[in-house]
Amino acid sequence: MTSGVYKITNTVTGKCYIGSSINIKRRWQRHKENFGKNKHHSKHMQNSWNKYGRDAFVFEVVYECAPIKDIVLFYEQLWIDFYGFENLYNQLPNAGSALGMHHSDKTKEKCRISQTYKMIPIIQINMSGEIIGRYESISEAARIIGAKCNSIRKSIHKYYKCYNSIFVKNIDDIKNAISMHSEIIKQHREVMGKNIKKNNKWQKGKQVAQFDKKTLKQINVFSSTLDAERLTKINHCCIGCCAIGRQKTAGGYIWRYVDDKDKYGVENIC
User: Fold this and answer.
1) Where does 119-175 sit in CATH, by number?
2) 4-100 placed in CATH 2.30.30.370
């Protein structure tokens, strides 16, 4: 989902419309629907659409920003002022309100910090702590690897894994990031293990069967969930959760304890 400022340009006359949205793709679809119904709020633009046809208009995103209403309206106003209201299809000189949008100093500072933060250089490391990428900003990293800016931010601040890697601000943060990520995983596994053991259903020593999730055919049988993890590299806690019916799959497979093979409704279990 892209948020920010967009422009719709009449390639015949050169006149354009400036708008903003938290979900630009959905807003463009709404514009086209209104044009098709001859009910667009800008009568001047609707007349141009009817006269020149859909092919004469080009839609483009001119600026991306955080998906916060005040922020997108703030930047829409900047683009309206840049082109000049008198040169646009827009019916109102002020973004978001007929009375004008007056932003407080706090909102303006919030916008400034948000955009400045996106321009901080960052480093991408693999799970062994090796540097595998350097980027001028979060936006650049998101664009190149195909991730979301928010996912990268979470990786930087909360040490979450993002596209099998972790992002840090500088080299000095690498050691701490790897250490913190390992600690988070350890705590997560401990919590999962305790929750599962509460039900007295999950036992590491029980045989567990692996099934294809599409055909439901049995693939293999392991002496325990730990043995399954050692051979398949799938977390044994997740396998155990699946085996007792607490989650549908683990690692892309269905798992069931051999002793409970008829208990959770999986067919074709040998």
Assistant:
1) 1.10.10
2) no
